[in-house]
Amino acid sequence: MTTFTVYTSSSDAIDPRYPAAARAFGRRLGERGDALVYGGTDVGVMGVLAAAVREAGGHVTGVLPRRMYERGIGDEACDELLVTDGMSERKQQMIARADAFVALPGGFGTLEELLEVLTLKQLGYHDRPIVLLNLDGFYDPLLAFFEELFATSFAAEAYRALYAVAAAVDEVFAHVDGYRPGAVPEKWA
């Protein structure tokens, strides 16, 4: 069993293809007997994802800050629902429980969490796989910015190995299943 920490949107005001992709990803995750750790809400893409995992028989752990829980958006159907004191503790819980990280399409929070786990991997704090589900080119602008970082030497070209890009759900699982940690160069060596 692999535990996937998944970052995605809590918005309902988005194109229907994104919840559909989350549903397909969640269904596949549950069918495989894997576990989900996610942001703990029952709204938006997050809610769709968690429901799909549960419907397919997977284990779901939600992690959300008390402030969000008190707004009434906590997913009480989770197998385990952790309510934290704040966002920092939430992120640490989600990172600690992960065997792999996946970024589905999402907004500022998704980007912030993705960049944190990328940076932690770059600095040697973990060596777990990180995959961006680049549905219909959603992450192309971010990937182009990463290329700018490589071209201007703000990031070493070797750091492309920190993450994988998948165009489809099955590619996410193929990457994680075949993942072998590689040597990441020391940042200040």
From TrEMBL:
<dbReference type="Pfam" id="PF03641">
    <property type="entry name" value="Lysine_decarbox"/>
</dbReference>
<keyword id="KW-0203">Cytokinin biosynthesis</keyword>
<keyword id="KW-0378">Hydrolase</keyword>
<dbReference type="GO" id="GO:0005829">
    <property type="term" value="C:cytosol"/>
</dbReference>
<dbReference type="InterPro" id="IPR005269">
    <property type="entry name" value="LOG"/>
</dbReference>
<dbReference type="GO" id="GO:0016799">
    <property type="term" value="F:hydrolase activity, hydrolyzing N-glycosyl compounds"/>
</dbReference>
<protein>
    <recommendedName>
        <fullName>Cytokinin riboside 5'-monophosphate phosphoribohydrolase</fullName>
        <ecNumber>3.2.2.n1</ecNumber>
    </recommendedName>
</protein>
<comment type="similarity">
    <text>Belongs to the LOG family.</text>
</comment>
<dbReference type="InterPro" id="IPR031100">
    <property type="entry name" value="LOG_fam"/>
</dbReference>
<dbReference type="GO" id="GO:0009691">
    <property type="term" value="P:cytokinin biosynthetic process"/>
</dbReference>
